[in-house]
Amino acid sequence: MALYVIGDLHLSLESDKPMDAFGQGWDDYVNRIKAGFEKLTPDDVCVLCGDLSWASSLKTSVSDFRFISNLPGKKIALKGNHDHWWSTIAKMDAFFALHDLSGIQILSNNCFYYGDMAICGSRGWTIENKADAARNDMMVRREANRLNLSLEAAGDATEKLCFLHYPPIFRGLRCRELIDVMLAHGVRRCWYGHIHGYGHNYAVQGCVDGIDYRMISADYINFTPQKICD
Ligand SMILES: [Fe+2]
Ligand SMILES: [Fe+2]
Question: Which one of the ligands is nearest to 19 CA?
């Protein structure tokens, strides 16, 4: 049994979404995801760090979630900025139950345990676009609150692992509010996605102010889930 992570599968099995905008390297990506998951067993757990499906509603996402469900391992999914199918927890759980997609669980204001460790996280928020400062401030506060709820739910876990969609640190910018929430809860390791193409050159990999950051967008890790621990 092992814990894995990958972000940004960007599935589009019920429509034809060109991936050129994300740069080179997305050729045959669905089969590459399938190959990347081959090393997982049914007992393994894989955190999916957002941007799972281009579908605009749950109704049009069935094929994408069927594909995800059929990949080996249990999946824990959090929201990315392109997950427009996202709905209330009750509606998503009902959708998964209706379509027999029981291997997928949603990480939102809650946490899951992996042994004595806790799997916590939230979408986060962009730190690059400051066009609407008031809205940005509101979204950051909301996401900081969600992340805090998730980490609080972890209680006295031996380690609180943090998973985000947006990078909390990028190109010299920091999302101070989210980082402060992580530090307040003693988070030492954080995984994030969202960054594609040329942005890979700026991804922070390594320890900054006591937190070890790892970028795990699918195209950055050759569509292969990264093992966190056994
Ligand atoms: Fe993405
Ligand atoms: Fe994204």
Answer: 1
Tokens of 216: 């795990």
**Ligand 1 centroid – CA 195 distance (Å):** 6
**Cα(181) to centroid of ligand 1, in Å?**
24
CATH of domain 3-229: 3.60.21.10
220 CA from centroid of ligand 1 (Å)? 11
Question: How confident is the prediction along the chain (230 residues), in pLDDT tens digits per residue?
Answer: 999 999 999 999 998 888 877 877 899 999 999 999 999 999 999 999 999 999 999 999 999 999 999 999 999 999 999 999 999 999 999 999 999 998 999 999 999 999 999 999 999 999 877 778 888 999 999 999 999 999 999 999 999 999 999 999 998 899 999 999 999 999 999 999 999 998 999 999 999 999 999 999 999 999 999 999 99
Alpha carbon distance 132, 194 (integer Å): 20
Query: How many angstroms is it from 191 CA to the middle of ligand 1?
Result: 14
Beta-sheet strand order (sheet of 112-114):
112-114, 117-122, 159-164, 189-192, 211-215, 206-208
CA of 194 to the centre of ligand 1 (A): 4
Domain ranges of the chain: 3-229
Exposed/middle/buried for residue 87 (C-beta within 10 Å: 0-12, 13-18, 19+): middle
pTM comes to: 0.97
Please tell me the distance between residue 158's alpha carbon and the centre of ligand 1 in angstroms: 31
CA of 48 to the centre of ligand 2 (A): 12
